[in-house]
Design goal:
The complex is a heterodimer of chains A (79) and B (473).
Chain A lengths: L1 E5 L2 H5 L2 H14 L7 E5 L10 E4 L2 E4 L5 H10 L3
Parallel strand pairs in A: 1-2
Antiparallel strand pairs in A: 1-3, 3-4
Chain B lengths: L6 H18 L3 H4 L3 H5 L11 H15 L10 E3 L11 E4 L10 H5 L5 E3 L5 E3 L9 H5 L5 E4 L2 H5 L5 E3 L5 E3 L9 H5 L5 E3 L3 H10 L8 E5 L12 H11 L3 E4 H19 L2 E2 L4 H10 L13 H12 L4 E6 L3 H5 L11 E4 H10 L17 H4 L6 H12 L8 E5 L1 H12 L7 E5 L18 H10 L6 H5 L4
Parallel strand pairs in B: 9-10, 9-12, 11-15, 12-13, 14-15
Antiparallel strand pairs in B: 1-8, 2-5, 3-4, 6-7
Helix pairs in contact in B: 1-4, 1-9, 1-15, 11-13, 11-17
The chains are: A alpha+beta (79), B alpha/beta (473).
Chain lengths: 79, 473
């Protein structure tokens, strides 16, 4: 599974750093390091919906507040 | 609304704008010979002796705007026919000499080069004169002047000489491609090769960023440029031009600050590697110190490499104040990552070639880097960032930075280091006065530029280097 977080300017201001850091923490806490690959990208072209995140090819709009529930629902449940 | 410092820049801009305009329309090949006439129409000359010479020089400018002489590896080129063969006699006594009694000039001259004629007027014996300038300093009438060519005055690495045709000639072995002569030549006879056509081509062939994405990487000195508009409007303008997105080279600077402070703590002494002209200068003038050059790529190269890592098909265009960056992008170690380099001058031409009035645009956002990454743009910023990098990584190292503002200061520090008398362990070398904000490719150079960079730095969303780079996993 590959999670990509947008680290472009618009998403950055909306908190992509916090999203990345929390995902790093959650991946490590659940020992998913070898199953989940976390990466960044600059701009997914959907700046209005930031922080933009994709899991494989599916798009999600995540915020620092919703990252934990996103992780449970879209990552932990599916991995 | 003043876009440029000088009319030379304005002329260069007009050529670049026309070349780009024709390229967008796919009409460059058929209209290239008409460009000089478009810029200088009619029969009345405005710059030179006649319109024909003006157009002949413009034809040379068009060639350089299209990439210049492929045989000459130097980014900086002399347009022979544009060189006005300025006087270069050195110190001379002018007719302001009143033939006084004091003869301070004679007394101060240790070489005995001053003599007096029957009217008591001073004369300088050129076979004895060593051009120290003491006579000029002491003359109460300012009657002694130094006639030097502005290009030679600008070139602190002494790469410019005068050829047999009396035109300026650049020694490629000494030239560091900083562009100081480009900015200073009052006739615009020395200029930098442009890759504006490569950029137009990259954007056009991307098919609206469908085939591949074109990233614009903007240097932090942009904060002191395009002052007639808002920075956010420049960002939107870049996207209007057809760039996929805009990223801050300053994030690359944050990456460098982390690695540089680590390398410094490990080795104990380093010279910085951010400024390509400074690196080139060490290689040509102080080969014995090459081993001390930081092994880190420049911020431009570091971030471009990262971009290509996450998006292998991407194209990266660096936009900054620097002519030497054009040369850096051609190095084997950098070439795979940076596809083209533009200056701010060229970006202005590119905007106008598509009639994009950035002042009418919405403000976009640009925020990838920390305060420390952003202040790389001014002298002393890199040293501050390395100090911060040491602190954030809890590295025990007693930093004694030597920030060198301009290539002459760099020379002094390197000279001291080569003699082992330098009081410092980190040489921050910036070839341009003020740092990157003094770069030859800037639209304007002003007193307030440093303050603008610092202000832009403080506006960064991330306050520490670690926070800025923590997204890069």
């Amino acid at each position: 599974m590959k999670i990509t977080v947008c680290i472009g300017s618009s998403c950055h201001i909306k908190g992509s750093r916090q999203v990345v850091e929390q995902l790093q923490y959650l991946i490590a806490e659940n020992s998913l390091g070898d199953k989940v690959e976390l990466g960044g990208t600059f701009c997914m072209g959907k700046c209005q919906q930031g922080v933009c995140v994709t899991v494989d090819d599916s798009f999600y709009s995540v915020t620092p507040e919703t990252v934990e529930s996103f992780f449970k629902k879209e990552v932990l449940a599916k991995v | 609304m003043r876009k440029f410092d000088t009319k030379v820049q304005y002329l260069k801009y007009k050529v670049l704008r026309e070349v780009a305009r024709q390229a967008w329309n796919d009409t460059l090949l058929e209209n290239v010979l008409e460009i000089p006439k478009t810029i200088v129409p009619g029969k009345t000359s405005t710059m030179r002796c006649c319109v024909y010479k003006e157009r002949a020089i413009l034809a040379e400018r068009v060639k350089i705007a299209m990439g210049g002489d492929k045989e000459n590896s130097n980014i900086i080129e002399v347009i022979d026919i544009a060189c006005d063969e300025c006087p270069a006699a050195g110190y001379e006594v002018t007719d302001s000499c009143r033939g006084c009694l004091a003869h301070r000039c004679e007394d101060v001259c240790k070489r005995g080069a001053i003599s007096f004629d029957h009217n008591h007027v001073a004369h300088i014996d050129k076979t004895k004169c060593v051009e120290c300038g003491q006579c000029a300093n002491v003359c109460p009438y300012s009657a002694i002047v130094n006639r030097k060519r502005p290009c030679q005055v600008a070139c602190k690495v002494k790469a410019i000489s005068i050829n047999t045709d009396n035109a300026a000639s650049i020694d490629n072995g000494k030239c560091i491609q900083c562009g100081a002569c480009v900015y200073q030549c009052p006739f615009g006879a020395i200029t930098d090769k442009s890759y504006i056509l490569n950029v137009v081509d990259l954007i056009k062939k991307s098919n609206g960023n469908q085939k591949y994405k074109v990233y614009a990487m903007v240097a932090p000195s942009v904060s002191s440029q395009f002052t007639y508009a808002k920075l956010g409007q420049v960002i939107t303008g870049l996207k209007e031009l057809g760039f996929y997105t805009v990223i801050e080279a300053a994030l690359g600077a944050d990456m460098v600050a982390v690695a540089e402070s680590r390398e410094l703590a490990e080795k104990g002494f380093l010279t910085s590697s951010c400024c390509p002209a400074f690196v080139a200068y060490i290689k040509s003038a102080f080969p014995g110190l090459v081993e001390h050059i930081s092994h880190n790529p420049s911020p431009m190269a570091a971030l471009a490499k990262y971009v290509k890592g996450i998006d292998p098909g991407a194209k990266v265009v660096f936009i900054g104040p620097c002519t030497a960056k054009k040369a850096e992008a051609q190095l084997e170690s950098v070439k795979p990552y940076v596809d083209a380099v533009l200056t701010f001058e060229e970006l202005q031409a590119l905007f106008d070639s598509r009639d994009i009035d950035i002042t009418a645009l919405e403000e976009g956002v640009l925020d990838n880097a920390s305060y420390f990454g952003r202040i790389f743009a001014r002298s002393g910023g890199l040293s501050d960032a390395v100090a911060q990098g040491l602190k954030e990584q809890n590295l025990e190292f007693d930093l004694k930075a030597v920030p060198c503002n301009g290539i002459e200061a760099c020379r002094m520090a390197l000279l001291k280091k080569s003699k082992n008398v330098l009081d410092g362990n980190f040489i921050e070398g910036m070839a341009c006065i003020g740092g990157c904000i003094g770069g030859a490719g800037c639209l304007t150079h002003g007193e307030k530029n440093k303050a603008e960079v610092d202000k832009y730095g403080r506006e960064a969303f991330e306050k520490t280097i670690s926070d800025a780079v923590s997204v890069l996993k």
